[in-house]
Amino acid sequence: MRHFERDILTMADELAEAYAEVFTAPPWPRRDRAETRAAFRERLETDACRPGFRAVLALSDGGGVDGFATGWTALAPFRTDRAYPQVTRRLGAERVEELLVGAFEVDELGVREHARGTGLGRRLLGALTETVPDGRAWLLAWVGAPDTLAFYRRMGWQEPAPLPGDPTDVVVFLAPS
Q1: DSSP at 79
Q2: Which has the closest alpha carbon to 109: 147, 77, 159?
Q3: 2-174 CATH, one of 2.40.50.140, 2.130.10.10, 3.30.1050.10, 3.40.630.30
């Protein structure tokens, strides 16, 4: 396992390739692999500059990325891009402020097909979150990925109860406390 901060950009191409492999395979929606790789690579440039950004990579002997985890500190005001509006709808603005703002957000966790079933995902998640202040971390997952949801539940991550009404296709998980 190698830990990175902004220096993750030295591994950006390898990380983007691993990301594209993981998130263009089932159960994820069918997406163009080259476009997914390019979009993630571009997003990584911004993400690496976020306060508290860090990444953990599991590297193969040949230098390829077998697995990865990235995240940063969620700041106020809470974001309104990507899936963040669904998070606010699911929990409500007051609970978002209480539970998520100021906590470490696990943004990405992925393990390539050939490295699955080895405990690598558990080790990556642990390595990324082991030093977060007060153990406060959170992440969101897509409801269409039942194995992913089951993984977080097995790891002891807990789901705050959603607000009634307007269902979303994301689930918020809080780190075990």
Answers
A1: P
A2: 147
A3: 3.40.630.30
